[in-house]
């Protein structure tokens, strides 16, 4: 198992951590169901292989009422019956935005249109910011080899 290389860079620059947490607070207050934000956070962190964010995402999801079936199956959400159309739209957007470099059209119209069908512009903004801030935390934790359980 790999060891920690250094603390999370945002922890070394307290103003940066405060700014990241301010974005989290703004997203949380934007009116999107906390369950959706938790599912999006968890799926982004799974894709990026960020152990502390996956572990934290599971706890966050459970706190906000995400079912055990959903928590265990979020990586295979397309193949399960446990997600609503709204959750599926959020998860599809999450995957597309997290994997921007994987295809020539990173966020295809069908993915965007499905999300826009379920969320207004402010809610879409909150979802995109949630995905972006989760990716930011993943990109700070993964290269520094942060381990799950290190809060």
Give a written overview of the molecule.
The protein has 151 residues and is mainly alpha-helical. It has a single domain (13-141), classed as Up-down Bundle (AhpD-like), CATH 1.20.1290.10. The chain is 65% helix and 0% strand. The protein has helices at 9-12, 14-28, 34-48, 51-63, 68-73, 85-98, 109-118, 121-141. Helix 3 (34-48) packs parallel to helix 8 (121-141). The chain starts with 8 loop residues before the first helix and ends in a 10-residue tail after the last helix. The relative contact order is 0.20. The mean pLDDT is 94. Keywords: Oxidoreductase, Peroxidase. GO terms for molecular function: peroxiredoxin activity. Residues 14-95 form the Carboxymuconolactone decarboxylase-like domain.
**Main sheet attributes: strand count, strand direction, barrel closure:** none
What share of the residues lie within helices?
A: 55-70%
State the shape.
globular
CATH topology-level fold name: AhpD-like
Head-to-tail CA distance between termini? 18 Å
Number of domains: 1
The CATH level-2 architecture is identified as Up-down Bundle
CATH class: Mainly Alpha
DSSP, total strands: 0
Weakly predicted, low-confidence segments: none
Number of helical segments with 4 or more residues:
8
* Average residue pLDDT: 94
> Would you tell me the structural class of the helices and strands?
mainly alpha
- The CATH fourth-level homologous superfamily: AhpD-like
Domain Carboxymuconolactone decarboxylase-like: 14-95
Keywords: Oxidoreductase, Peroxidase
Protein name: Alkylhydroperoxidase AhpD family core domain-containing protein
GO molecular function, one term: peroxiredoxin activity
